[in-house]
């Protein structure tokens, strides 16, 4: 079998994750989206920002990184932010929006 410099591409199928946020978290997320707009001049919804916020959190958690490295190896590697697809996330986390389970 031919050995290529580029390894096999990881699964890039988006996964929908829905959760219910308490009102204070929903307000904080909306405030973050507003701060993002003020900083970068581009309005992004909470749903667009959230996957990148979660990825940044996971990438910065040293205890989590140690646990993943010890337990799962390469399969547990977080892909770089550039090769992540933009997942669709339910708007039920936004203030004023409710979805019934």
Structure description:
- This protein is mostly helical.
- It has a domain at 23-88.
- Helix content is 43%, strand content 0%.
- It contains 3 helices and no strands.
- It is extended and about 55 Å long.
List the helices and strands and how they pair.
Layout: H1 23-40, H2 46-60, H3 62-71
Q: What key phrases describe this protein's structure?
A:
101 residues, mainly alpha, 3 helices, 0% strand, disordered C terminus
**Structural class of the secondary elements?**
mainly alpha
Total DSSP E strands = 0
Helicity, as a percent range: 40-55%
Low-confidence stretches: 82-101
Order of helices and strands: HHH
Radius of gyration equals 17 Å
Mean pLDDT: 79
* Most strands sheet: none
| Cα end-to-end separation | 49 Å
Q: How much beta, percentage-wise?
A: under 5%
Which of globular, elongated, flat, extended, rod-shaped describes the shape? Answer: extended
Note the total helix count. Answer: 3
Q: Could you give a quick summary of the protein structure above?
A:
Helices cover 43% and strands 0% of the residues. With 101 residues, the protein is an all-alpha fold.
